[in-house]
Amino acid sequence: MRTQVGIIGAGPAGLTLSHLLHLQGIDSVVLESRTQEYVEQRVRAGVLEQGTVDLLKESGVGARLEREGLIHEGIELRFNRAGHRINFAELTGGKSITIYAQHEVLKDLTAARRAAGGQLYYQAEAVSLHDADTPQPKINFRHPGGKTEILECDFIAGCDGFHGICRDAIPSQALRIHERVYPFGWLGILAEVAPSAEELIYTYHERGFALLSMRSPQISRLYLQCDPEEDIANWSDDRIWTELRTRFATRDDWSLADGPIVQKGITPMRSFVAEPMRHGNLFLLGDAAHIVPPTGAKGLNLAIADVRVLTRALIDFYKHKKRDRLDRYSDTCLRRVWKVQRFSWWMTSMLHCFPNEDTFAHNLHLAELDYVTSSRAASQSLAENYVGLPMEEDEAKR
Ligand code: FAD
Ligand code: DHB
């Protein structure tokens, strides 16, 4: 089998790349180790930056997102039993975020690729990469029955997430890893109950962080900080709601409505960057290259930003025979990646309790939150990062 761009992974990075390349007449094949049903049901991110929404709409896969997505023009930061709104629209010249689940984005992209006759192979696991640093890279992959086949291509796009094989295909002497693992995780639930607020609430409490989010006017998504080694079996539904209620407690005029929990799980938290994001004709995108702690809601959006940079570079290559954007790919992406890492780390540090914190540390959290919510400059800094830094490659040259 042969194609121009061999894409490993049908997550947000792989499917968006395949879709955008198709619109430019560039051929790709997507290999995904899981089934389509599994990928389309996996509960993950839910916050789309303005730039991500614009890209999905401009590329023709935004119709359902436009109908069903919830546009939010602000968030609440809650601490010391009081809420403080950060008004994105006012602080960023009218920008907003949209709540629309990651797996719904994937359904829309898959439908568009299928309608266009795109080559998507599910239960097709990439087992090894060959000649990645030559003009004829190859992917050895396994069909569901076990038969293996070679996909020949001009470029390999490693969109295979944090546990994929692409990053490991870069020789260790050519790769630098920057990593921080946090001493806590998030326990996340999906519940059949109308969200208790119209906008997201990020709460700092001495028992730990809590977040109220949503998926629709009928479905709430909530998170609470927990030990990363915690066994989810120790968390009955009752215990989860009681803990959430304690952490969100504010004025007497607000209460957290509960309902049946339909999904729950614990996610560990890390910051991770692999550098460079390219080796010869192998390019890493999204979680394959970097992980952010979820507090800034950036994982999916960062994957889409990489896709945008690589798409422009591949258009230049195929249409104008120019390689300079391909050569700059890693530097262009990493410049933005590090700014988003900084924001995600900062939000995480401000809103979570670290083990053995004393009263000094506790008061620093409160002072930082007080400053962020009372200074226009600090609120604006949070707002412009949250709605998303510019995506254009030219930004990297400024
Ligand atoms: P992925 O979505 O991981 O896609 C990679 C794909 O590659 C997968 O479908 C995988 O099956 C496939 N693959 C792997 N290896 C192979 C192989 N050898 N051959 C073929 N296919 C392969 N972000 C937020 O902003 N907010 C959140 O609340 C949030 N929650 C998360 C919860 C969890 C449990 C996880 C893991 C991530 C969460 N994220 C969240 C992060 C966000 O979902 C990711 O940043 C985003 O999915 C990255 O997209 P991606 O396409 O780079 O990788
Ligand atoms: C959601 C996830 C996040 O990581 C976040 O910061 C905000 C919302 C969500 O899943 O809705």
What is the structural class? alpha+beta
**Roughly what percent helix?**
25-40%
- State the strand order across the main sheet: 6-5-14-15-16-13-17-20
Q: Tally the helices: what do you get?
A: 11
Q: What's the N-to-C terminus distance?
A: 42 Å
Say which molecules are bound, naming each kind only once: flavin-adenine dinucleotide, 3,4-dihydroxybenzoic acid
Number of E-state strands: 20
Largest sheet: 8 strands, mixed
Mean pLDDT over the residues: 96
What best-fitting shape do the alpha-carbon axes yield? globular
> From the alpha-carbon coordinates, what is the Rg to the nearest angstrom?
21 Å
**Unreliable stretches covering 5 or more consecutive residues:** none
Taken as a percent bin, the fraction of beta residues is: 25-35%
Describe this structure in a few short sentences.
By secondary structure, this protein is of the alpha+beta class.
